[in-house]
Design brief:
This protein has 363 residues and is an all-alpha fold. 61% of the residues lie in helices and 2% in strands.
C-alpha cells in the first residue's frame, strides 16, 4: 500500500490530453488577461471583507444577536476567500511572487486550517490520486463514513445515509480541531505516505490554532462577551461555513456517477492519467454571476483537474473545449445540476452502507 501509485502510459490517453492542451493554449491566447487582475482584486476584497466583519463583530460584543450574525457572515465569506484566493494561490494562479503566496497561506492559518498540511493533502494527494482508495485525502476524511465502494461497511457506516445530516455540518470543526492534528501526530495517516513534516511545522500548527482561538474567542471575551456566547458564535461560524463548503466540495467527485478505480498489484492505475480524471470528476451545470465571480468557477471542476495551473477565470472556455472534444471522440463527460450531484452523493452513502444493496443495484 505504501509504494507510490503510477499511471499507465497509453497512446490514447496521451493523444487526447496533448490535443486538449494544444487547443486550450491556443484559446487562452485570445482571452483577455484583464480577467486575472479583476479576479485578484475580488479575492483581496473578499479577504478584506472577512476581517472587516470580524472587527465589526468585536466592536459589537454588547449585542449578542448582532455578534452572532456577523460571525455567520464571516463563515460564509471564509469559504469564498478559500475558493477565490487560497485555493487559486496554492495552484500559483494569483500571484507570481513566492513570498506573497506564502503570506496568503499564512492568512489561511489565521482562519483556522493548517496551510502546510492542507497544501500537501490537496496538491500531492487529491490532485494526483482523485478517488483512489488509500490515497485521496479529500475523499477519506473520517472513518465514520464509507465513501469508497470497496470492502464492507462496519459500525455506524451502516447508518451513514442518516447520520450525515447530523455530522456533515461538523466538517470544518473536524478539520480544524481533529483532522489537522491527526495528520501531524498519527503515523498511519495517508499524508505520511508522501510527506515528512518538518519540526518547525509542528510549532506553526500549535501557534496557528492558538492564534485563531485567541482572536475568535479570547478577544471577544476580553471585550465583555460572555465566554459561552463566544464559543457558540465560533461553533455557528464553523457549522455555517462547513455546510456551505460541503455544498460545493461534495459535488465534483464523491457520487455514484463517478468511478473509484483501484490500482493493480503493481500499484499502476490502468487507462492513464487523462482518463482517470474523466472517470472520477464531474462538473456542475449551475453557472451564474455568483458562481463565476464569487465561487471561482469551482463548478467547472474537470477543467481545473486537467489544467490546475490555469486561472479559474478561463474555466468556462476550457470546459467548452473539453465538452466538444468529448463529443467528437465519444469520451465520458458528466455535468449535473447541484441538486442531482448532491442526490448522487446521498445515493453513494446509501449504497455503501449496505453491501447487499450495493450488489443488487449494480447487477
Amino acid at each position: 500500500m505504501n509504494s507510490k501509485i503510477t499511471y499507465e502510459r497509453t497512446d490514447e490517453s496521451d493523444f487526447h490530453y496533448k490535443m486538449l492542451k494544444t487547443l486550450v493554449n491556443e484559446r487562452l491566447k485570445t482571452l483577455p488577461k484583464s480577467r486575472e487582475q479583476k479576479a485578484k482584486i475580488r479575492s483581496i476584497l473578499l479577504l478584506v471583507t472577512y476581517f472587516a466583519l470580524y472587527f465589526l463583530a468585536i466592536a459589537n460584543t454588547h449585542s449578542v444577536p448582532l455578534f452572532y450574525s456577523l460571525y455567520i457572515a464571516m463563515g460564509l465569506v471564509m469559504v469564498l476567500v478559500y475558493l477565490n484566493l487560497i485555493h487559486e494561490t496554492v495552484h500559483g494562479n494569483v500571484f507570481e511572487n513566492k513570498f506573497i503566496n506564502q503570506l496568503v497561506l499564512f492568512l489561511f492559518d489565521l482562519m483556522g486550517p493548517n496551510s502546510y498540511i492542507w497544501k500537501k493533502r490537496h496538491i500531492i494527494m487529491h490532485h494526483n490520486y482523485p478517488n483512489i482508495f488509500g490515497w485521496d485525502t479529500d475523499i477519506e476524511q473520517a472513518g465514520i463514513f464509507k465513501i469508497y465502494p470497496h470492502g464492507k461497511p462496519h459500525g455506524l457506516q451502516h447508518y451513514q445515509h442518516y447520520l450525515f445530516v447530523l455530522l456533515y455540518p461538523l466538517y470544518l470543526s473536524n478539520w480544524l480541531f481533529i483532522r489537522d492534528f491527526k495528520d501531524f501526530f498519527l503515523k498511519n495517516r495517508l499524508i505520511k505516505k508522501t510527506s515528512k513534516i518538518p519540526k518547525v511545522e509542528y510549532v506553526k500548527l500549535i501557534a496557528g490554532k492558538l492564534l485563531f482561538l485567541t482572536y475568535m474567542v479570547g478577544i471577544p471575551v476580553m471585550l465583555g462577551l460572555p465566554l459561552l456566547h463566544a464559543i457558540l458564535a465560533l461553533l455557528i461560524l464553523l457549522v455555517t461555513s462547513g455546510i456551505f463548503s460541503l455544498l460545493i466540495l461534495l459535488s465534483p467527485h464523491a457520487n455514484i456517477k463517478n468511478r473509484f478505480p483501484l490500482p493493480d498489484e503493481h500499484q499502476v492505475v490502468r487507462g492513464g492519467w487523462f482518463f482517470h480524471q474523466l472517470n472520477t470528476t464531474n462538473d456542475v451545470t449551475t453557472s451564474n454571476w455568483f458562481t463565476r465571480n464569487l465561487m471561482g468557477n469551482f463548478n467547472y471542476h474537470l477543467a481545473h483537474h486537467l489544467f490546475p495551473y490555469v486561472s479559474c477565470v478561463y474555466a468556462p472556455e476550457i470546459t467548452e473545449i473539453i465538452k466538444k472534444h468529448a463529443q467528437e471522440y465519444g469520451l465520458s463527460y458528466r455535468s449535473f445540476s447541484l441538486f442531482d450531484a448532491l442526490k448522487y452523493h446521498y445515493l453513494l452513502l446509501k449504497q455503501n452502507a449496505d453491501v447487499k444493496e450495493l450488489f443488487e443495484e449494480t447487477m
